Amino acid sequence: MHRRLIAPGALAAVLLLAIPASAATPSPGAPGIGDPYYPSYGNGGYDVSHYDLRLTYRPATDELQGTATLLARTTQDLSRFDLDFLLDVSEVRVNGVKADFTTSGEHELVVTPKTPLAKGTAVTVVVRYSGVPSAKSAYGFTTWHRTSDGAVAADEPEAAWWWFPSNDHPSDKATYDVSVAVPDGTQVISNGTLQSTSSRLGWTRWNWRETKPQATYLATLAVGKFDITTHTSEGGVPVVNAYSRGLGDNDGAARASVERTGELVDWLSGYFGPYPFDSAGGYVPDTTTGYALETQTRVYYSPKQFANGSNTSVVVHELAHQWYGDSVSLKGWKDIWLNEGFARYAQWLWSEHEGEGTTRELADYVYASHPAGDPFWTVKPGDPGPDHQFDAAVYDRGALAVQALREAVGDDAFFRILKGWPQEHAYGNASVADFQKYAEQVSGKPLAALFDTWLFQPSRPSAPAARAASL
Ligand code: ARG
Ligand code: ZN
């Protein structure tokens, strides 16, 4: 009854007093960055600009220890925040002051600073840690792989949890210094440029630096006995490759493929524009995994890629990702087509160059190999879902979509799009919707129907009219 006596304006004033604007109340950062495919990946409330990792690794026992220093900026008033991490933490400092920390969920390190952090301020987070990465798992799996003489971290969409604390999502890119000490005679491979090595007390420290923004899943670390080769491409790109001493019969084919990195970077630059990074290369550890990964500047290859002889196609695929995926990164994991559709299309362009089938022939072949009703067509490359993110359809139907775009806009506009896109969003993040908008802008054609048909329908599109006759 009394409420009636309060004028509406007065009630609003009372509410405002009772519930202060959220900007004035520090709150916990979210445990995930908000990606619907992987709700717990990444974190809310801050943005990292630089990771400095100073580590020591013992191959014999798989012990990793050291300090990660993160330079970040808050994006809200923060009472606490999460990092994604699995190893054992002994101390966390926020702006120099010891912070409380605990673990939560599958891979969250929850940090509560002594005093809340104001929105928009610079924060330095120091995490001291140690642990045996191979002994840790999350959701029942591990992506840390021990080898005969070391270990490798390279996987997608997650690899960082096993070796450094991070905001593990491609939408938060940062620069990196990765410094790892290993026993003399062992090598360390990581992203970017090798700044220096130094030896003392039986340990050699390797200092790698990546100066361009890099997604967390593209950070890589390999320790082992490697033969490292260096050269400079005709186009001036410094190349650093590394081959495990344990490649056995695959050694020749691995080198015959990966040593062509400089040539292939230059060739791809003709389609995609200038190579976006200061260094290029790849490494082949003696792992038993079957995939390759476009780890920034230093591609990870499995020896299996080279079991049948040279495989320049996989090198082209991973190098294409340096533009499509690494420099221009996904906004969310649903945008995976922007990575895999274009990396596969680059392989088709290379096939055409090598006289092993034109892009059009390959498109027709893929289309014909999957008749209507093939579950292949139920995967929507534009939003495949986390369980189908790396299905063959994302790659092959994804490349079909690229070919369909080419035929719709014509070669001139198509190749301007292919080269313009990596410039438009260099070192940033973009979505499939952004790409559609860009392609429409460059070509002057409405493309909504084409994108919907090739990327978002769970069924086999009818072949482009011009080709229906031959199929
Ligand atoms: N982006 C990688 C490639 O296309 C795929 C990695 C898939 N991840 C995995 N663990 N199999 O080369
Ligand atoms: Zn790929």
From TrEMBL:
Signal peptide: 1-23
UniProt domain Peptidase M1 membrane alanine aminopeptidase: residue ranges: 308-454
SUPFAM superfamilies (alphabetical): Leukotriene A4 hydrolase N-terminal domain (SSF63737), Metalloproteases ('zincins'), catalytic domain (SSF55486)
Molecular-function annotations in GO: alanyl aminopeptidase activity; metallopeptidase activity; zinc ion binding
Keyword GTP-binding applies: no
PANTHER family attached to this UniProt entry: AMINOPEPTIDASE N, PROTEASE M1 ZINC METALLOPROTEASE
Protein name: Aminopeptidase N
Organism listed in the record: Streptomyces echinoruber
